[in-house]
């Protein structure tokens, strides 16, 4: 039954392919994100198995996916046609080129242009930025393990070294939470009580933050590393590995890659919300590649692993759906 439903769905998609292409190609964006995964290709079976290794997607600041591509590698040769098609799409529609591109790697080179600056060579002013979450995860390699009692404090310190909150909107949120607590019957709540009432979800939803700058971030990261060096838990296990300083020195050159682009607004107002009689803005942040990570997870879960049909027709439709080039060459 599952195979029948999947076969029916893909045949329906195939019958609407031209409409889907027409719906996808008008999608543009000023902030692009590019990300690749092997998890999707690993779930392919039958004649499609081992024919591709990577699924690469490009999305925009609104969470929309501009294109998807299956390739055998992430080389410039394999991604070149995709880049040419996307640049041509912007050019034909007379759209302004995107200004920022977020990626999880290949953000820079020591003496030359980065991989993506070479790939999208017609967009001369394109700024390539590294996803902050991936940068923080790289620094995790300096730690012995995630179960260490000091791990959470250390990772929180890294985030504090990179970002600073907009004081005005944070204080506005605190005032709203204080008003809510008073309405709930707690008269004159303390500052500590208000702080505990503000959740991480509310901070992300109603508050903006920005990067501190390269020099300040490097200084704070050095201070953080020094403060945790030699510190152990109750069993004498240190937080850092013996070669922890090497990880910091290696990643220090990428601190400039995680900084917010100058003069570019990464937050978009999507609505308003009243809490405690105070109106709070609701924001959507365009920073990073999180939206594509979620999209990859959705696609991976959509493809059944061991239950994928083996008949030749289904495999052909599936390959055509993902691999057939769009009218503009992508």
The CATH level-2 architecture of the largest domain is identified as 2-Layer Sandwich
Total helices: the number is: 14
**Helicity, as a percent range:** 40-55%
Tally of separate domains = 2
The span between the termini is: 35 Å
Q: Sketch the major β-sheet.
A: 5 strands, mixed
Strand order of the largest sheet: 3-2-1-4-5
The assigned structural class equals alpha/beta
Give Rg in angstroms: 23 Å
H and E string: HHEHEEHEHEHHEHHHEHHEEHH
Organism: Daphnia pulex (Water flea)
Protein name: MULE transposase domain-containing protein
Summarize the structure.
The protein has 330 residues and is an alpha/beta fold.
Structure characterization notes:
It is a single chain. With 330 residues, the protein is α/β, with parallel strands linked by helices. Helices cover 45% and strands 16% of the residues. It contains 14 helices and 9 strands. Helix 7 packs antiparallel against helix 11. The radius of gyration is 23 Å and the shape is globular. The relative contact order is 0.17. The C terminus is likely disordered.
